Amino acid sequence: MLEPSQNNELPPIPGKRYFTIGEVSDLCDVKPHVLRYWEQEFPQLKPVKRRGNRRYYQRQDVLMIRQIRSLLYEQGYTIGGARLQLSDTVKEGGHVTKETLQALRLELEEIVQILKF
Fold it and tell me: Could you please report the per-residue DSSP string of 29-61?
């Protein structure tokens, strides 16, 4: 079991559009086989699959994985409980975390840079 304080020590998410399963594994401190299992258990988690069925995760997927990780490893939810918690959050309109706002800001800055050219 991971220590509760470990989620705060996760590395920052780089300003990329797509991440491989290995990169997400490192960013979220979760093994790749666990990520593949969570895809089956959490309908909100849908990475893009491309050539050869390779998974490419987007920023919102990484944020969702970190939230799932927190619910399971830190808050002690079961898979079913975490699934319910996430579906309730979506129904209620969700809550905006500081990390989500930072990710949104980075994406908007990228769009501004593209539009300047």
Answer: T--HHHHHHHHHH-TT---EEEGGGEEEEEHHH
